[in-house]
Amino acid sequence: MSTKVAQANLTDAVKELRFRWERARSEWDDHASRRFEKEVLAPLEPMVIAALKSLEHVNELMIQARRECEDNG
Fold first, then answer.
1. CB-based contact 44:10 (threshold 8 Å)
2. pLDDT recorded at residue 71
3. What's the maximum distance between 2 C-alpha atoms anywhere in the chain?
4. Beta strand residue intervals within 1-73, DSSP E
5. How confident is the prediction along the chain (73 residues), in pLDDT tens digits per residue?
6. Neighbours of 49 (CB within 10 A)
7. Of 5, 49, 44, which Cα lies nearest the Cα of 21?
């Protein structure tokens, strides 16, 4: 799987998670739901952003490595 595909998959999964959470939240609004959102969902956002940035960096490194291999080829 390419890093671009991984980025797209991760982005899509987060969008789907947000959509489903909003639907669940419309019917589940109590202390447990707020705790779940605070302790589970909220920390995911910065982790996903970091993962996406890391995947982009890996993609750039792979492009650079390919270029260097082609130049030496």
1. no
2. 81
3. 62
4. none
5. 789 999 999 999 999 999 999 999 999 999 999 999 999 999 999 999 999 999 999 999 999 999 999 987 6
6. 11
7. 44
Amino acid at 20: R
Reduced to 3 states, what is the DSSP secondary structure of residue 14?
helix
61's tokens = 């490194």
Structure tokens at 69: 């291999």
SS3 5: helix
Query: Please, how many CA atoms are within 13 Å of residue 25, restricted to the half-sphere of its CB?
Result: 12
> Encoding tokens for residue 4?
């671009």
The 10 Å CB-count burial string (b at 16+, else e) for 12-48 is eebeeeeeebeeeeeeeeeeeeeebeeeeeeeeeeee
Are 56 and 8 a contacting pair, CB within 8 Å? no
